[in-house]
Amino acid sequence: MRQAIETLVTLGRVFGFALEAVWAYKLRSIFVSAGIAMGIAALTVIVTSVDGAQRKALEIVDMFGPDAVFVLGGDIKSRAVGKRTLTLSWEDARRLRQSLPGAYLVVPMRAKRSIMARYGGKSKELPVVVGSTAAYSEVWNWPLAEGRDFSDRDVALGTKVGLIGDQAAEELFGDESPIGKVVFLGDLPIQVIGRLSYRGFSGGGSSIDERMIIPLTTLTQRFNMDRKYFRALRVKFHDPERMSVHVENTRSLLRHLHGLKDGEDDDFTILTADEILKFIGMLKGGLVVFLGVTATVAMLVGGFVLANLFYISVSERTSEIGLRKAMGAKAWTITAQFLFEAAILTIAGALIGMGLGLGLGQALTRLGILEIQFSAKVFVLALSSAVAVGVIFGIRPARQAARLDAVAALRGDGS
């Protein structure tokens, strides 16, 4: 017990010597910490972005639903510049409703971006106004908090009614119910008949709770858009366990309706929850590979900088080391001091790197690419990686210092 206490006291003194040395050699300390910081910044982005991608994937799948497909006009996977994206027509929607096995809901959609909404003295720029047929809330599994969805009659007549997202309603109406109120979209008056429940999902720099949904016919008529074609279709099926069959049936029917021959590319894109998961997986993989290489290189560079500077430090501090050994310092305390110095510098670099990494992560979040959230896992992984680099690259210079002969070191000869 007594020996253990004496060892701890000795280590405390050695740690104090290490702190003094780090402060005395400021330029060396800055170089080492900066090198480690770059690697830890990349490592922080890797861990937080992968966690964020997983959360985003689960959000998307939950919102998308396992029983639906989303069909976009144009082949977004291999679209040539200038190639048509408006390839889905009202006839496609009609035939899908009539002939697609297992389908029970087909809802065409189109969107108009960046429209100013006004109510009373308040205004808000809506990132998107969606035009849809009836059953928008049902087809997207998005219940109404109050009011009703618009009907087939509303679509047929192009009535000026709409649904409003929760965030848009809060900003325009505050605590008031929006039902029955008239919102101006540009110069178009829209009576709010339903308020969508809060969803909390964001992407592309905006929240889906900021949108409004109006009849597709109203959107195309009032904003002078092509009335024959629309941008997307949402289709829901019975028997979600047979989604692969549903997808193939949808593809075959649309290719037939569009007169596509064997060997010709699709002029549409079918997305499912599985497709979205694959895309998120590719995104995660790309981030891990790119940032992993960056982190590894930066950490190795930081480690080599640390080792080289410590070798130089040993040669510069031979007299100090010789004096300590002459006064009774053991080899292991000399080794421990240099390892403490390495650990202090790499931990400082880790803390700086985590700050940089979180800053980069916030930039990704603002771009709507991923949600970055700091966690205890990031903290532990960053610190343990930094300490490992310090020990691995600092051990040889530390041992070299410990092996110095006291007399030769006092003369400044080092051996």
UniProtKB/TrEMBL annotation:
InterPro entries: ABC3_permease_C (IPR003838), MacB_PCD (IPR025857), Macrolide_Exporter_MacB (IPR050250). The chain crosses the membrane at residues 31-50, 287-314, 334-358, 378-395. Keywords: Cell membrane, Membrane, Transmembrane, Transmembrane helix. Residues 294-404 form the ABC3 transporter permease C-terminal domain. It comes from the Bacteria. GO terms for molecular function: transmembrane transporter activity. Residues 33-243 form the MacB-like periplasmic core domain. It holds the Pfam family MacB_PCD. It comes from Desulfovibrio ferrophilus. It is found in: Cell membrane. One of its GO terms (cellular component) is plasma membrane. It is a multi-pass membrane protein. Belongs to the ABC-4 integral membrane protein family. This is ABC transporter membrane protein.
